[in-house]
């Protein structure tokens, strides 16, 4: 039956290039708007403009028009524009606001610098109710406002608050139903011979048949690659999986990211016989198993790349050459990956496990030096020494957590005091209301002095929205004792702590001498401040 590929790329959808879109007239309008904005008072609320565009078509609103319209709206609202978060060629369906390159940086790191987010239309900002609900929750937490030029969204208005309630309710219902829908869809898809959902196994691609149904077809390049690998595995002197991967990369059939483990998973996948499979995690080993239908027989979804005899002979050949590596350790075999580096080549030190005459051996080796360098036996001893060195330097430091402090209340109190001081100073001026009697003058002067003292006591920094570091009551020693090496490794990798391992061969001794050098950035304590991820649970 004839088939055709499903990929369709409309010719009229082109990536947007902002550099070619500003005209002289647009730039003149922009200059005028900035001049008018400069006349706003210093304490004017600050606005961040959010601009987004997937692709430029005749029906879309260009980023230039979005920015100019939003600047005009900001000026009408008495807002000073402090930044423009322009994310072009970005899909709002696939990328939520907090994961976009520019807007995400403002939301996660620069929240104190703006008071509200302005966007041209709701679909320019988000296209999923759950994303909008998450952003509303974030704004309420940090005292920000969302304002749309062409939609009734403004968290300071009654209609906007009603919108928040409606969106929040809908998002809660959607969140409750998502898991059920997804589970039901996958359960249904596993019983169908048509390809309903999911990414095809390597070797296949989705196509549409003459009836318009989506089915799987064999990819010719992958077919040749897989059969070459099978022939290479069945040679009298079989090729290793790592050599297969190198040959396929050099030939251009596979990308440069192909690894030995990925190569083996592809060759061991029973889906290559045309059957539907599902992932089967057994003791940390990733494998796929055949899905059986109601008749207890495998469900065929495509023509086979290998017959059952070819597939079984391939598995036997791979088993003969397999090294029976120990079961994968949860979290990986190597602790402090990315922190422990080879002194000579600078690559990561990783744990290599071998079995010889019934005994298991572990070594820390690098990826670039010949044969992994001299190797560092007993990784646990190196881990213990590394942990001890780190705790000596950083263990007693307090764990600081970044918290957001709003300056609205302090600004309100400062304004009240300034207005009161101005009122009493006017009253104490010659012929003022407090100068008519000695008693009223003395009382007014006393009150004025008290107001001035209260104003001087206000920390100017407290009137600004800001991040502050607060001690959470623990030291890093306590934090790492609770979380173990995984927590310590994650923190050290995040802040850029490194430790080089130098191995020197000792004459007459098989094990080399290991020298460790701990390298800690000067601003490590600032980097160690924990930053809460407000969007960690968003989906």
Automatic annotation (TrEMBL):
Residues 201-324 form the Recombinase domain. Keywords: DNA recombination, DNA-binding. PROSITE patterns: RECOMBINASE_DNA_BIND. It comes from the Bacteria. The keyword Acetylation does not apply. The keyword Mitochondrion does not apply. Transmembrane segments: none annotated. This is Recombinase family protein. It comes from Streptomyces vulcanius. The lineage of its organism: Bacteria, Bacillati, Actinomycetota, Actinomycetes, Kitasatosporales.
């Amino acid at each position: 039956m004839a088939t055709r590929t499903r990929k369709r790329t409309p010719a009229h959808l082109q990536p947007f290039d902002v550099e070619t879109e500003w005209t002289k007239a647009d730039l003149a309008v922009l200059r005028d708007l900035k001049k008018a904005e400069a006349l706003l008072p210093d304490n004017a609320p600050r606005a961040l403009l959010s601009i987004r565009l997937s692709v430029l078509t005749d029906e879309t609103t260009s980023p230039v028009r979005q920015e100019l319209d939003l600047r005009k709206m900001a000026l009408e609202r008495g807002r000073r524009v402090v930044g423009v978060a322009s994310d072009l060629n970005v899909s709002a369906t696939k990328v939520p606001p907090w994961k976009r390159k520019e807007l995400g940086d403002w939301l996660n790191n620069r929240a104190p610098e703006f008071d509200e987010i302005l966007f041209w239309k709701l679909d320019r900002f988000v296209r999923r109710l759950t994303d909008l609900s998450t952003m509303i929750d974030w704004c309420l937490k940090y005292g920000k406002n969302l304002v749309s030029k062409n939609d009734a969204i403004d968290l300071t208005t009654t209609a906007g608050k009603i919108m928040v309630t409606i969106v929040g309710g809908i998002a809660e219902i959607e969140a409750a139903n998502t898991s059920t829908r997804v589970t039901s869809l996958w359960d249904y898809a596993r019983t169908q011979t048509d390809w309903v959902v999911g990414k095809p196994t390597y070797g296949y691609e989705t196509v549409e048949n003459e009836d318009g149904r989506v089915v799987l077809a064999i990819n010719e390049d992958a077919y040749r690659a897989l059969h070459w690998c099978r022939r290479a595995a069945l040679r009298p002197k079989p090729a290793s999986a790592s050599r297969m991967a190198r040959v396929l990369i050099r030939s251009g059939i596979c990308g440069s990211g192909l690894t030995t483990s990925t190569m083996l998973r592809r060759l061991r996948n029973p889906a290559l016989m045309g059957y539907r499979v599902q992932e089967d995690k057994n003791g940390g080993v990733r494998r796929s198993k055949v899905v059986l239908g109601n008749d207890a027989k495998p469900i065929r979804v495509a023509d086979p790349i290998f017959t059952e005899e070819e597939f079984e002979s391939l598995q036997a050949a791979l088993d003969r050459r397999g090294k029976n590596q120990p079961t994968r350790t949860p979290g990986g075999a190597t602790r402090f990956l990315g922190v422990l580096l080879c002194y000579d080549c600078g690559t990561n030190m990783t744990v290599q496990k071998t079995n010889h005459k019934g005994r298991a051996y572990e070594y820390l080796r690098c990826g670039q030096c010949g044969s992994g360098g001299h190797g560092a036996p007993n990784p646990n001893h190196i881990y213990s020494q590394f942990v001890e060195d780190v705790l000596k330097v950083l263990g007693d430091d307090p764990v600081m957590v970044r918290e957001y402090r709003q300056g609205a209340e302090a600004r309100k109190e400062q304004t009240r005091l300034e207005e009161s001081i101005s009122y009493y100073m006017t009253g104490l001026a010659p012929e003022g209301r407090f100068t008519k009697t000695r008693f009223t003058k003395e009382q007014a002067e006393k009150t004025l002095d008290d107001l001035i003292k209260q104003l001087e006591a206000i920390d100017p920094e407290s009137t600004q929205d800001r991040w502050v570091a607060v001690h959470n009551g623990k030291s890093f020693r306590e934090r790492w004792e609770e979380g173990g090496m995984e927590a310590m490794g994650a923190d050290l990798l995040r802040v850029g702590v490194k430790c080089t391992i130098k191995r020197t061969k000792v004459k007459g001794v098989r094990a080399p001498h290991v020298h460790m050098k701990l390298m800690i950035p000067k601003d490590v304590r600032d980097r160690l401040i924990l930053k809460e991820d407000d969007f960690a649970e968003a989906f």
